[in-house]
Amino acid sequence: MQNISEEMVVIERQGAVLTVTMNRPRVLNVLDEALADALLAAFAPIAADSTIKAVVLAGAGRSFVAGGDLSRFHADLANAPATAGLLIDRFHALMRLIKAMPQPVIAAVQGPVAGGGVGLALACDIVIAAQGASFLSAYAKLGTNPDGGTTWSLARLLGPRRALEFVLLNEAMDAETALHLGLVNRVVPDSELAEAALAIAGRLSQGSFGANQSSKALVQAAMEGTFDEQLNLEKRAFTANAGTADFREGIQAFFQKRAPRF
Questions:
Q1: Which residues are paired to 38 by β-bridges?
Q2: Residue 115 forms beta bridges with which residues?
Q3: Percentage with pLDDT > 90 across the chain
Q4: What gap in Å lies between CA 204 and CA 93, rounded to an integer?
């Protein structure tokens, strides 16, 4: 096991799966500059490492992330805009990194997930929620709007009406409702969260790195482009993958009636 930034973020590797754990349980893993910097340092080298095929993002203790560190604002309200800019720049750099990296990222969320914690979870590719998890926008009560791509993700996953309801009414959403509405992929017993996330990451790690990368990119592109544009992107990605060793192995495995060894 390797520790980064005085154990603020803990990294553990199991085969082709990397688990990145936010390790500030006493403050419910609230985001500040130090934690954001530690997460950026942890994620930055992953994209270039094709031996890592799946990533799990988790939070130690009772909460995945309970939002931003509001004490940073309370300490100097007069300079709140500048403080917000510093925090958001780091936070958004992390969001962009997670979205752009070729590996699928699985968020394993538990406890009260609020504010930026919601945006961080939704920026990941798959979200596994503990039965006791809950989701709260929290921004309206503070007199501001969401950040971290939260409005982008909510609008696409819930539709604009439900997204605005979630943000403006600031009502907590339980895990089962989040599952029903499509905010999370699966809900598992609290005690099985880590095991379930690792199991899915393990399955993903058995796949082709290139195929996972192009599928992730294509699904993201599908939210923005036209059908015709998507057809062209799919063709381009498919023909590129068709020239790889993974594709040759996949075809051979199919005709040999065995599982592929990517």
A1: none
A2: none
A3: 95
A4: 25
At which residue do the structure tokens 């100097």 appear? 76
Q: Which two tokens stand for residue 237?
A: 């990605």
In order of start, what are the domains of the chain with their CATH numbers? 2-205 (3.90.226.10), 209-255 (1.10.12)
Indicate whether 2 pLDDT > 60: no
- Provide CB contacts within 8 A for 217, sequence distance 6+: 102, 237
Alpha carbon 201 to its chain's center: 13
For 230-244, write each residue's pLDDT tens digit: 999 999 999 999 999
Interatomic CA distance for residues 39 and 147, integer angstroms: 17
How would you list the strands of the sheet with 112-114, edge to edge?
112-114, 134-136, 173-174
CA atoms within 13 A on the CB side of 94: 31
Give the E-state strand segments of the chain in sequence order: 2-4, 9-14, 17-22, 54-59, 105-109, 112-114, 126-130, 134-136, 173-174, 186-188
Number of neighbours of residue 195 by Cβ within 10 angstroms: 12
Q: Residue 6 has what pLDDT?
A: 61
Collapsing DSSP states into helix, strand and coil, what is residue 210? helix
pLDDT tens-place string over residues 68-82? 999 989 999 999 999
Question: What do you get for the CA distance between the two ends of the chain, in Å?
Answer: 26
Encode burial over 137-159: b for 16+ CB neighbours within 10 A, e otherwise.
bbbeeeeeebbbbbbbbbbebbe
Q: Which pLDDT band holds residue 3 (cuts at 50, 70, 90)? A: very low
Cα 198 versus chain centre, distance: 14
